[in-house]
From TrEMBL:
GO molecular function: long-chain fatty acid--protein ligase activity
GO BP, sorted A to Z: bioluminescence
Pfam families: LuxE
Record's protein name: Acyl-protein synthetase, LuxE
Domain spans labelled Acyl-protein synthetase LuxE: 19-329
Organism this protein belongs to: Cyclobacterium xiamenense
Length: 330
């Protein structure tokens, strides 16, 4: 627990001077203290003490969160967990965490580092499917944003599109900005029923996911529909998942910036142990905020790292299940 507290303070400082050194330190800690990760390394005949470079750190397949308890400490330290979304018959992931307070504070700091204080927003969260089940990390984050906004107008909406539209109209002249945070299929449903215009301070942010409720669409098509319906010049996006405690944000065009706790590495889709530079592949993520579980994850998303350090999410690998919190196939 002392290690967790010490590491969390480094995260909250917002100034990680040497990402590589901190990630290597965390790798050696987790290779000793995470039983599942340790067994995975042993199965690959890898010796953690021989790994001295960031690029040599092995990534744990994210599917392990569906079948194993991924923790880097005593079980009694993990009283909480978040679970992933999934359509009927899908096996869901579970992420055990040591502190809800850490996750919520970290999520707020990441959002505010891009968009400024939540006190400057009304937060309207359109999250059907997530609100219909327990244990969603996205709902927990949105609830925290709603609380931190301090606005009596902030709140959740399930399928009450008419009420949400009326709330948007009521806030049109408000000096505060409006954050409309929604799962993609629900934003499209809202856009089909109502058209907004003249909202100078409206920020529309999609979290990805059709949840089997609409046909898949490419990102450009989705954003075109939403920009015209809401009268905005761009659609913002949030990239996160149950198995991560950090989020990345796109302020338009589907291009994401890594927060200070995250590093994106692209791997060869035909060789999961080889990384590629300058071309698309599957996404590996280093998330230092996962110091309590596993910070080195091999995801089932496809993407590309851009020359300026940003990254683009291109879709899902063909053999992976459809999940919420992933962006649309591009």
């Amino acid at each position: 627990m002392n290690y967790f507290k010490s590491f969390s303070e480094k995260i909250f400082s917002g100034k990680i001077r040497d990402f590589d050194a901190l990630a290597l330190d965390l790798f050696h800690f987790q290779s000793r203290n995470n039983p599942v990760y340790r067994r995975y390394l042993e199965a690959r005949n890898l010796h953690s003490e021989a790994i001295t470079r960031l690029e040599d750190i092995p990534f744990l397949p994210i599917s392990f969160f569906k079948t194993e308890k991924i923790i880097s400490g005593p079980e009694e330290a993990f009283a909480y967990s978040y679970s992933s979304s999934g359509t009927t018959g899908m096996q869901t992931s579970r992420h055990y965490i040591w502190s809800k307070e850490f996750y919520l504070r970290h999520s707020r700091l990441l959002f505010e580092s891009v968009y400024g204080s939540l006190r400057d927003f009304h937060v309207l969260a359109l999250l059907p499917s997530y609100l219909e089940r327990e244990g969603s990390s996205l709902v927990a984050m949105a609830a925290h944003f709603i609380q931190e906004s301090g606005s009596p107008h902030s709140g959740f909406y399930l399928n009450e599109y008419d009420l949400l539209y009326k709330k948007l109209l009521a806030l049109k002249e408000s000096p505060k900005k409006i954050l409309l945070l929604g799962v993609t299929f629900a934003l499209l449903d809202l856009a089909e029923q109502f058209t907004c215009s003249g909202f100078e301070r409206l920020l529309v942010m999609e979290t990805g996911g059709m949840k089997g409720r609409r046909k898949e669409m490419i990102r450009e098509e989705v954003h075109d529909v939403l920009t015209r319906a809401f009268g905005v010049d761009r659609i913002h996006s949030e990239y996160g998942m149950t198995e991560l405690l950090s989020q990345a944000y796109s302020t338009g065009e589907g291009t994401f910036r890594e927060p200070w706790t995250m590093r994106i590495v692209i791997r060869d889709t035909y060789d999961p142990f080889a990384c590629v530079v300058g071309k698309s592949g599957a996404i590996n993520i280093i998330d230092l905020a996962n110091f309590h579980s596993c910070a080195f994850l091999e995801t089932e998303d496809l993407g590309k790292k851009n020359a300026d350090g940003s990254f683009t999410v291109l879709g899902r690998m063909d053999n992976s299940e459809v999940r919420g919190c992933n962006l649309l196939i591009n």
